[in-house]
Every structure is written in C-alpha cells, then in structure tokens.
From TrEMBL:
SUPFAM superfamilies reported for this sequence: cAMP-binding domain-like (SSF51206), Winged helix' DNA-binding domain (SSF46785)
Originating organism: Spirochaeta isovalerica
This protein's UniProt keywords: DNA-binding, Transcription, Transcription regulation
Protein's UniProt keywords contain ATP-binding: no
One Pfam family per UniProt: cNMP_binding
Record domain HTH crp-type: where: 146-217
Protein name in UniProt: CRP-like cAMP-binding protein
Amino acid sequence: MNEQVNISFYLNRYGLNSLLPAEVVEDLKVFRYKAGEHVVRSDEYLEYLYFFVEGKGKVYSLQENGKSLLVRFYTPPDVIGDVELFSDRRSVCNLQAISEVTCLAIEMKKMQLACRNNPSLLEYFCRSLSGKLQNFNISSAINLTYPLENRLASYLIAISEKGEDETTVDRIYTDNLTELADLLGTSYRHLTRTIRDFTERGIIEKKNRRIEIRDYRRLKEMAREIYT
C-alpha cells in the first residue's frame, strides 16, 4: 500500500477529508514511529502539526527535580501541535510512542495559512484545545485525589492491548519501575507495595520485567478511566 493510499484511508477513517482543504491534503506526509521512540520532545519548536491516526502514545512532562510526570495518553484521532500552532512556542511536554504509531503531518506554516480563512478548521482545533484543557485540569488533580492503586490500574489498562475477550492475558514490560513511579507521582517503595498487593489479589502477575494482567475486569473497575 503506497503512502497516498494510506493518507486517503486515514482521512476517510477519521472524517478529516471533509475538514482539511485541498492544499493541506496535497502536502500531508506519513510519519511512523516504533514503540519507545519520541514523536515530540519538550523544549523544541515543532516543524509539523500531526494528526495521530494509529497506535498509542504517552504524554509526560519533566519536572525541575529531574522526575517525569504522566499527563495523559494519546490515541487516534488526537492532534499534536495545536497549542504550538497558535502560540509559536516550544513544546512543554514529551510524547513517546508506546506502540507502533502513525501520524499524518503538515508543516506548521502551511497549517497556519490554511486556518486564516477557514472557520471550520479553527473550530476543530478549538475543540481539540478545549478537550486538552479539560483533561489537563483533571490530570492535575489526580495525584492529589486518587490513590495509587487507581492510577496504576488506569495506567496498566491504558498501555495494554486488550483482545476481544476481556480475560485475555496482557503482557506489559516494566523496564524501569523507578521511572514508572515518577510517571505516576509516587515513590518506588509505594509502587512496589501496590504491585505486590495487586499480585496477591490475583489481578496481575509479575514475572521478572513483565506484568501480566490476570483479571482485566477488576483492573478496569479500579481504573475509573483516569488517564483516558
């Protein structure tokens, strides 16, 4: 399948074909990222605006103390760069792929020109920005109001690839629990205690660097859609 066919497929899939003007569609590019690669890094100017059309990514910020903090997850058809589109500022967060990711990209300057006389396009980005603001307000309060078990459950649900059967075992690799503790705004000791508690309750099973979800339904009930 060539790139032009790929672009047409995603435009139709997410209704972008009726939104984007012809001059934008003509200049769209397809960017792909492997799990672990960064789509966006903080403190960088974005050359492109991205339409997130395949896969899953996590957005996190770096704190002054060197720790990272999970902000939210990206799934299709999220927009990357809508804040920078109107502010011309550096990115303040990192976006890292946690599965294979595909984006449709358009140069920022070309999208800025397209927005000048296109109310429908402006409304689309305004809706995207308002949704992000709402999610940010929610995520800012999460670490203060939700216990770690809820945050961990939501994180595991968000990064897992669930099959049609909700009892399917999902495998999640945990290369660095210290990093995960930072992302969830907790200590390494508290995180390991919570993982041990989940294991004893039969919700997950930890094998070396891998976590397997054993009771998806119970985990989802605990998650409360915190990071969605």
